[in-house]
Amino acid sequence: MDKLKMHSSDLTEKNVDLIAELFPTTVTESMDAEGIPQRAIDFDALRQELSSEVVVVEGAQERYQLDWPGKRAAAFAANAPITKTLRPVREESVDFDTTKNLFIEGDNLEALKLLQESYLGKIQAIFIDPPYNTGNDFIYNDSFGVTTREYMERSGQIGTDGERFVTNTESSGRLHSNWLSMIYSRLKLSRNLLRATGVLFVTIGDAESANLRRVLDEIFGEKNFVANIVWQSRTSISDDLEVSPNHNHVLVYSRDRDHLAFWGEPLREDEYTNPDGDPRGPWKLVPLDANKPGGDTHYAVENPETGQSFWPPQGRSWAINPRSMRALMDDGRIKFGLRGDSAPKRKLFLAERNERGDTRTPSSILIDAGTTKSGSEEVARLFGQKGVFDYPKPTALVRRLLSYATLGTKDAIVLDFFAGSGTTAQAVLELNLLDQGTRAFILVQMPETTAPESAAAKLGYATIPAVARQRIRLASDVLASTVDSADVDTGFRSLRIDTTNMVDLQVGPDDLVQASLAGAVGSVKSDRTDEDLLFQVLLDWGLDLSEPITVEGAGDHRVLAVADDALIACFTDEVSPEVVRAIAERHPLRAVFKDAGFASDAARINAEQIFRELSPETDLRTI
Description:
The chain has 623 residues and is of the alpha/beta class. The protein has 18 helices and 26 strands. It has a 10-stranded mixed beta sheet with strand order 3-21-4-20-19-5-8-10-9-18, sandwiched between helices. Strands 22-23-24-25-26 form a 5-stranded mixed beta sheet, with helices on one face. A 3-stranded antiparallel beta sheet has the order 11-17-16. Helix 6 (175-193) packs across helix 7 (206-220), helix 11 (395-406) packs across helix 12 and helix 12 (423-435) runs parallel beside helix 14 (464-480). Mean pLDDT is 85; it is low at 1-11, 142-174 and 507-521.
């Protein structure tokens, strides 16, 4: 029985808990007056979270933390706004209007920022295979607003020619710092996207596994660490080091350990037998003792056939109280070993476990989930050519991990923002085929070019995203040849990160010249389509980017309807009252028009009046 506190709540502790939930990177350890470590808030880090610029702190204070040159700038990079958008690319898509899958080409830092509103707290599983930072495989691009060049110069990531793509070599003297800055800002943003039940999987080699664990502890909180799964990534022995590196790590973190949804391996039916002919079918015996003594759980259990009494092992207790034990015995669910001469164990019936959807607890060692060699062979089979993409993760590994996170949520959204050759997309499609799931994927890949003499380039694929998109198409073709593939969504909506659709009009009257007046009249860039504008609206409103889209009308009066009229957009330059009335009569939740679509203020006011009369609940806006 718990004692009454007899005092008011510790509001300071509650406030620390609230700050820790919002900004876990600000929680650290410090010493109290007696020199005892205690949880504390790093107020310098909190200031950075609430600041719109890099906060410079003078004077170091001892605290428990992982630090490196450029860390504060990386935190700023994660928080700073960008003026970018996503533009649809229909010609590179498959089933553009109906698919729930997304493929985004562009820098993943920018992509994660653009996804913040639309997918905040909606992603069930994130799998990423970032660069392992071996000294020559680390290429990336950071862009986060007007201070890009300043940050890149300060953190040693920009050359004298202004080139932003960086190969992180040991000769730079910043082998760990550059890599940590890159991964820190991206992981920080990715945490926001996970559901409370969600899971993050990050594969990594030995070079950065220790640092990555510390970074993840800081961003997600140590309590949300789930496992370090050791994956056998190769079977051949390399003799160029003292010990052959035959493994990689898969670091697993939850968004909120208290709400984590996690499954395991399929049950092994060969472990279940029925030697006593129990009408409930095959069973196996499982222990009844527990390692947390307490309550009425320390007592003797008597074998009714032999009279022998059994106590729990020393230092342990029974997992249930005497009444529950008696109920199980009366129901024929307790056996004293297969020969009746050992401690009591409980019958676990296969049929009941299958009915509940039970799984086996997975091991922290994966030795049968494919290798990097089998991953390369998968890509070679699809393209009919070796060397198109070197050493991708095998679908067997990704499929296995994603099943742990989504077996009970088969409509989950899966995100991979280091997409590479597109292994994650193929794994999602195969998993859906196996269990009739409706999982959707969001892939992000930087527009890195393929090497001029590579197999990919010779096949006509100029960039890694082009390789990945084709892999998804080829894998979909293979799935389409199977019997049960009809309900699997094998399409993807291709999007590309680009500058904002809006013209920069931040110039004064004195700066305008006659030649530029025409360009200053409209607020939308001349090369942008109504679908470009629609996707910027989806981002601004925080709407799902995979919602079905229908296009109606023709010529200058195209109407775009999203998710069965949840949003209706008309971006024509001359919107007639008849079009406005037709849209209002459909009672959309949201409606948007182009500013230039109304010839005058009177026309705009008239449109507002029509909506007030016919659809007063509609959120009506213009761009």
